[in-house]
Every structure is written in C-alpha cells, then in structure tokens.
Fold these 3 entries.
Entry 1:
Amino acid sequence: MGEMKKSKKKLIIGIIIVLIIALIIGGVVYSQKTSNKDSGEELTTEELTKHSIVSSVSGTGTIAASSTEEVYTEISGYKVQEVCVQEGDMVSAGDVICVMDMSDVEEQKSDVIESRDRTIWDKAEQDADYDQQLADSQSNRNERLESAKKTRDERKKTYESAKKDYEAYQKQYNEQKKELVDSGQTESAAEAQLSSMASTLQQKKSTMDSAKTQYDTAQSQVDSIEDENDDTITDAKKSYDETQDDTIENYNDTISDLDETIGKAVVRAGISGAITELNVQEGRTFNGSTVALIEGLSEFYVEANVDEYDIADIEVGMSVVMKTDATRDEQLTGKVTYVAVKASQSSSSGTIADYSSLLGTDLSGMTGNSSSNDASYLVKISLDDQNERLRLGMNVQVSIITEEADDVLAVPYEAVQEREDGSTFIEVVDEENSTTDEKGNTITKTKEIDVEVGLEGSYYSEIKSSKLKEGMKVVIPSDSSDQSVDELLNMVGNAGGV
C-alpha cells in the first residue's frame, strides 16, 4: 500500500523548501512581475469569479480484493501427496488446491474395521452360546415341571380317594352311633360298643392326612419349578452384550473420526479468484493451518495509509476520486468505507536529504525536516464501479474529498494577504481612482478589501465579504510565483513527491 501524502499545509511547506533550495543552486527559476501600484508597470491580476472549491487529502493506495479466503485444513502433520495449482493460477469455487497423503490413516482405519468386525463375530458366537444355555435350561425346567405335575396329580388322586373313604366311613360310624343311642343306650355305651369302628375311622383319617401332606408337598414342588427363571444366564448375557456394544460403538466412532480426517485430505477453494499465496509443496509435511490465499477478482477496493496529521479529517462515507495508470485518464470514484482507529505503521518522509535526488545535488549537510516520523492509519475505499483493467496490487492516485463548496467567490491562494494583527485582505484594482500620466501610461490604483477566508483548496481559497463583486480584478502579489500551486504540486509529484 502506498503511503498517503501530507495535507496541503505540509505540502506547501515542503514545496517552499524545495523552491528555496532550487533558487540557491540555480536549478529552478521563477519569473516575477513588479506590482508597483504607481509605477505604471503592469500588475498581475485575476478576475474575481465563482468556483467550486474542494479540500482533499491526496495520496496513493493499492488495489485489493474485496473477497479473500484463507484456504485452510484442520489436519496437519501429513505429507502433501499432490498440489493441483500454482501461485498466480485462477481457480473457481470447489476446485482442488491440494491432496494430503492419507495412506497411514487408511491403514489405521482398516485395522480398526478388522478389530470391530472380529468383535462383532465374537459377540455373535457368544450370543448363540447364551441362547443355547437358555434353551437347555428351559427344556430341563419343562421336563422337571412335567414330572412334578404328574407326581402332584397322582398324590392328589390318592388324597381325594383317602378323603372320600374317610368321609364315607365317618358317615357310617355316625349312623351306627345314632342307632345305638336311639335304641336307648347312652352315648358312652354306644361309643364303647363302636370302639372298633372308631379305631378304623382314626386309621382312615391318618391315611387321609398323610395323603394330603404328600399332595401339598407335590404342589409346592410344582410351584417352585414354575417360579424358577433364567436370570443368571439372562443377566450374564445382558452384561456381556453391553460391554461388547460399547466396544463396537467406540470402534465405529474411531472409524467416523478417521473418515472425517480422510475427507479433509482434499483441500478445495471456497471462492473464485487468484492464488496469491501457496504454502504447500508435494512431498513435504504440512504443519500449518493455512494452505493458500485466494483473492477474488470480481470486486476490488482500495487500501491506503493516511498520515496522523490528516486522519482526523477522514470519515466513513466521504467521496473519493481516483486514477490509475491502467485506466489512463478515466477517473474512478468511490467512498471511504473504513477508517482505522489504531495506527498500522510509522512513516518518515520530507527530509532535506529527500530532495537531493530531485535537485541533482548533495544537500545532506543542510538541516530541517518537512515532516517527522509519523504514525499512519489504514483507510479502505470502495469503488462505485468496477473496471476490467484493474488488477490486484496496482497503484492508485487517491484524493479523499474532505470538504466542498460550490459556486463561491474564490481567489488564488497567494492573493490572500495577512496583516500583523492577523486580519486578512485582498487587493483589487480601483478602477475609479486609476489615472493616466502625461505620457499616456495608465497609473493603476488599488484598494484593500477585508475578507474572511473560507474553504481552502489546492490553489483557490474561498473569500467572503459584502464588498466583493464578481468581475473585480484581484491583484496577485508580485512575490508570488507565476506557476500555480497545482503546477508546483505536479512538478514535485512527478519528481518523487513530498
């Protein structure tokens, strides 16, 4: 980026130094005109007219790309297998910039897949074994349950038979006892007579009770077998499956991570533009994150550095006019879009020694600087219209318009004079009081008009006064150069600039 030139005041100081030195060595001669009011000699004047005054900060900048991309990859530590572009190449979005060598990662992925598949196979075999254990356990339980039910049913029949026999004999005993009592015997006598039957009845009851006990035991055995489960096998299988599933999931996660890494091996352009920086070489290990820099060519803007003396005058939105060698006399226009709040660099220019090459002599022994080491601030400028002749890095002559005044009375900068008290005035030809001498020569009279200085341009200054009228002839002081400030600026600019 080119460094911005100083403001008008610094420019004029530098120019004055150049002129003084030029006069000393006889390198530059300026013609002068005498302005003796009463001598009859011709005065240097200029008609007072209206102008459009523009105050600007001039300088140089460079063409930059509005759209840029730092192409990067998150993977590092891999060799570059192939570089598909060269610095300076034009690319489109999606084009391959380079390909990383992923052979080690592919081999690692293959090993992980093999381990995962082996785990899946082992799990399938173990699950089959658990299923067989469950099947065997279920078969054994069914067999035992069937046998237990058979025993229970048999004992149930025995119990029911014994109960029926006991109840029938008990009925018979009760009937015999009732007949004896009804015949007139006492209950105790009847029981004594039926003692044999009572003993038999007791035996039948004991047989029934024993059968009942055996039946209950058989039913309990059935209930116990029915309540059995395969929790031991099922729990073991569940625990094993969870462990193996976690292992398989970890393998799959690793494979996905490796696939993601492999997917990043192909580095592509995200935008269309020119490769202006390339940081990869085939066969070399890539350890950085930025692979290349792509600068888009569909839209340009201008970057410039403004000196600290002028930066406070620059604001976002200000109009800018620009020229480049590539676009010849065509004027480009734009707007300030960004003004840095922090200095980006320091610059040094305008020393006496800087003019040695301009004047063709060694002036290093002289003292004095037109500027010191100053901080500079980045300014970005958008272009109102793109131009197909523009290229990245081209130098641009820039004028940032800080103030404008249209259709105002203005005079050359040197026509405004200052008194010791600080008041300002101009001299104009006093037409009414001008006379002719005896030889016929016109003796021009002048008068002073106090003015207020408004906006100052590079050559003209706006002046304000109720006494001013268009058409007045304004006197240009005789000690002023015949050359305009614009011409001096062009001369100095062409020789290297201030």
Entry 2:
Amino acid sequence: MALREIRPRTPGTRNMSVANYEKTIEKKPEKSLLHILKNNAGRNSYGRITVRHRGGRCKRYYRIIDFKRDKDKMPAKVVSFQYDPNRSSIIALLEYSDGEKRYIIAPLELKIGDTVVSGQDSDIKSGNSLKIFNIPVGTMIYNIELHPGRGGQFVRSAGSTAQLMAKEGKYAQIKLPSGEVRMIALDCKATIGQVGNVDHANIKIGKAGRKRHMGFRPSVRGVVMNPNDHPHGGGEGKSPIGKPGPVTPWGVPTLGYKTRNKKKKSSKFIIKGRKKSN
C-alpha cells in the first residue's frame, strides 16, 4: 500500500501520513464475520488496571480471522481486501466453492480474483496454506502454527515474513523476523508468502489525538514523577535516574535486562537467539 501525505493545513498534520487504501479496500465488512469487541481500557475482571496507558478508543468490531486454514483441498476465491482496525495487516475476504466466506491475512502478491487453497497437495504459491513438511526449504512463509491444529500464532504483522531454513527429524528450523532461529514441528501449518501492507512501518501518526483514537493514553516519564509514584521520581529540578539504574515502577530492571525464565520448557526449541537491540 502506498502512503499519502496530508496537506499541512494545521500544525498537527504537517508531518502526518496515512495509508492509501482508496483503490483496493472495500469499506463495508462482512456482517457474518463480525464480533462485538468490548473495550476494557486495560482493566481485568476485578476492574484493576493491569495494562497502563490504555482506553478511550473509537468503537470497533472484531473481524473473525481464519488462522487455522482447515478447509483442505477446497479452492477459495479472493472477493475483496479490507481494512482491519485490530491489526496492522490487510485482510482478504475469501469465498469457498461451497459458499462459505472467511477472512485471512492477505499476503503481498495476492490479487482480487485469485484462487487460494490449503492442504498437502497445494501449489507453493502466495496465499496457499500447507504443513511445513510439504514446504520446500528456503521458502518464505508467514502465519505459522506453534502447535499443530491451534492456528497461526507467529509472523502475522504487516510486512513480516519468516524463512524455512532446514528440516531435521520431526522438526523444522525457521528463521523468524526477529533473527531468532526456532525449531517447529513439521506437522504445523504455515502460509506461503509475505504479509502485505509493507509500508505500515513508515506511517507517521502526526498528532497526539490520532493516537488517542487508537486507544492509547499518555505515558509519563518516571523521572518527572514523585518518589512515591516511581523509583526514578523526586529530587530538585531535573534529576538523573540515580544509582539503582533504570527500573520499572515496580523495581524490575529495564533497558536491556532479560526477564525470560531460564527454566522455560520452550527454550530447548530455540537454536539461535534473536538480534540484540542497540
């Protein structure tokens, strides 16, 4: 998707850009695939805030996405592409030969009128879904299952793709977008191609109000808080973080501190760790 620069009629729109969906996106979603999405504003069932800086977004529906792709050997025609407010990727509306309609995450090369299919005899073509056992080594894939039959959990955001590096025994080695090389069972399904809407990473929000519409509330630096609100707070004037080092409001070290449990069972499936951020 191309980006469209906003004409700077106000200071907030001076550096704003939006994705240009006008030509390819259908505005009305499929009613049978909509579900009411409740806005909890970061609160749990007790009403306590468990995720900070959330709330106040526009009302939206959840689009039911087919992550499992379990209708094997039944061709489906791409009817339209649609915007999904719940994810960064574009979704495609499929109509199967039996009349059923489903949403999938749209790959980069898919077009309206194309036919996609899932199952072990499927062609290695963008949008087709099959088990990793049937995918050739070196193929770019997305929407990867972590456990067979559970549905795609990996590599679903806009522009992301993974590469099938090798197959050995019951497992395949897959290089994820983070740089991590992980072992995944050959019985797990994946979709061929790369997730579309590659330009999503280049969108400039432009103003604070647009971020509020998305459901994000302001976040305040710990340094400017009081001592009873944050470990970095207090002091006269501008004060540094201090001797304990950068920590979260609850005292856990941050900015590079690893919080992954060393005894986590799934660590044995990680062959190479992800890239370290600067």
Entry 3:
Amino acid sequence: MKLIAPSILSADFTKLEDEIRAVESAGADWIHIDVMDGHFVPNITMGPFIVEAVNRITDLPLDVHLMIEHPERYIPEFADAGADLISVHVETCPHLNRVIDLIQCSECRAGAVLNPATSIDTIEWILEYIDFVLLMSVNPGFGGQSFIDNTLEKARQLKQMIQTKGLSTLIQIDGGVNETTIREISAAGVDVFVAGSAIFGSKDYHQTIKNLKEKM
C-alpha cells in the first residue's frame, strides 16, 4: 500500500488546525512534520510543542523528520509529544544503531534519512533494524524545491537491496513530489510520498491528493 504524507512545513500556520483537518478529510495517510535546528540545515522550524498540538488535532500517524544535530537528545521529547514515526539523518548520527534503538524503545517506528549525495551503502548494515528509509530528493532546509532526478536510480537500488535482504522496509521520499513527478517516483519502488507545496499550494486538497494517489 502506498501512502501520502502531507508536509505541514507548507501549510498556513495561521490556520494550522483547519489545514490539518482538511488534508485528513482529503485522504492523507500520515502527517509529515519537519524539524530543523538552523545548524544541520539553514532554517529553523518546529519543536515538540507543535507535535503535541498536531497530535491533539488528528488521529493520523505523525511522521517526525529530525533535521537536527544530536537528535538523540530530543527523541524522548518528540515521542512524548505524540510522534508515531521518527527519522534521523545518518549524517548526524555517528552511532546510528544506538539512536535507532532509542527511537524504537520510545515506542516509535524508526527511519534513517539520506541526503541526496549520501550513498545507500551507509545504511546497508542497519537496514534490517529500521522501519523505513527516507530519501531526500532535494537538499533539506526549504520547501518548494525541484526534484533531483538521480534520486530515482537511488530508490531503485535501495529497493533491490531491501528485496535481496528479504526485508519489508518502506522507502519514503521527500522533495519535489507533485502530480508530474509522482508516477515515475512510484515506479522506482517508493512507498511513502511526502508532499508539501504540491498539496498545500493547491486550491483543492481533496482533488490534489486524489490525483496523486491515482498517479502513484
């Protein structure tokens, strides 16, 4: 089953509750929450208090993407705030097994994130321990960027690695997902599609999510 995870980074925060309820009723499967610290990426966004607020609004799984240095310091806070899935960048985790174990001990599903230029070889020996891999198809930090084309080959190779190991690990993709790109991305083996401006920048969330699901 393939899933759509609208990223609230592109939502109108003056009416965040309405935005979340709108995408939920429009057929969203997860809510994606981008957390940025202004150090690992050149932007500052949400913290645990936003996750807690969103958790009060929706029953959809909350997919928290930590684009931060030293994520292990904050994982318990995000789990307590209501995160269902937490993903961390391999580039920030020299002891990735330990961080993944911390996420799972916090009763969340655990994901490893790869920046566009980071090889899938970096997760080969942890793949069996994680629930999903998030492939960044733009350089993280800002919404509305264009899809980096060679991410398709990266997704295909990752899918082959997962199948060879006999695993059920999900592949998620974030960046440049829209009605033009989603069909080819899906064909490359991706399971979960993070879409921000493609959804929240559209006039009809229901029709946009319907179109995305039909094309994937």
